[in-house]
Specification:
The chain contains 4 helices and 15 strands. By secondary structure, the protein is mainly beta. Strands 1, 2, 3, 4, 5, 6, 10, 13, 14 and 15 form a 10-stranded mixed sheet that branches. The chain has a 3-stranded antiparallel sheet with strand order 8-7-9.
């Protein structure tokens, strides 16, 4: 797999991460990761921030330890501006709003995070700004329910029904002010407008026809490079998003 480089200088890479590729190795997958694809050319490469496997878009990688610390500080000080695009279930009522709700862990599933009642463990501050770009109706694809196999103990996707009626969706621009794990996915779930095609947080609602992946895209990132210059890097909107919202 070849990944496009959107910006590069002596200290930093900004890449256009495709959906479906892990950023770094985990114990469950043996497939190549973003790091695997770039380490040969950039042996001192370090991850500055992460995108979920199914999330696409712009992502930063540091070429050396000094750059890693420099950008780590920018993230901690909330100086880096990130913008995402997403498609969520239903018509979001407010044209723009701020979700300010701490995030903890789900008591039922170790993979999931939770905002609001029932969350366990350390509750970490999480702030998400959103703006509705478009509300629309579209035909949906097949709905898959998620069931746990009683003997094998793993989650399986089972076709539930074929929808032919139009379903309601909203296309959003999102600016997270904090960077918690699954923050956008959790906050959209919290306001009852989960991201479409999210098998972890929205397994039973329909996807717009033509979308077969988590509908979350990291559109742009703005940061200061080591010379003090403000850089803004943008990733083109995926074609499946364009076809749905056009």
């Amino acid at each position: 797999m070849k990944i496009k480089i959107l910006y590069e200088d002596s200290n930093i890479l900004a890449i256009d991460k495709p959906s479906g590729i892990l950023v770094h190795p985990d114990q469950r997958s043996k497939s190549k990761t973003v790091l695997d694809l770039f380490l040969k050319k950039y042996p001192k490469l370090e991850i500055v921030h992460r995108l979920d496997k199914e999330t696409s878009g712009v992502m930063l990688l540091a070429k050396n330890k000094k750059a890693h610390e420099f950008f780590k500080n920018q993230f901690q000080n909330r100086e880096i501006k990130k913008i995402y695009n997403t498609i969520v279930s239903g018509f979001v009522k407010n044209d723009h709003d701020i979700i300010n709700k701490p995030i903890g862990r789900s008591p039922k599933d170790f993979r999931r995070r939770l905002a609001g009642r029932g969350a366990r463990g350390e509750m970490r501050e999480a702030i998400t700004h959103f703006k509705v770009l478009k509300r629309f109706e579209a035909p949906s694809s097949e709905i898959f329910s998620r069931v746990t196999h009683p003997k094998k103990g793993r989650t399986l996707a089972t076709k539930k029904s074929q929808k032919t009626a139009l379903e309601k969706f909203s296309y959003l621009e999102i600016s997270p002010k904090t960077g918690r794990t699954h923050q956008i996915r959790v906050h959209m779930k919290f306001i009852n407008h989960p991201i479409v095609c999210d098998s972890l947080y929205n397994p039973d609602n329909p996807c717009p026809k033509g979308i077969n992946r988590l509908a979350l895209h990291a559109k742009s990132i703005e940061f200061k490079n080591l010379k003090g210059k403000i850089i803004k890097v943008e990733s083109p909107l995926p074609k499946e998003f364009k076809s749905i919202i056009s």
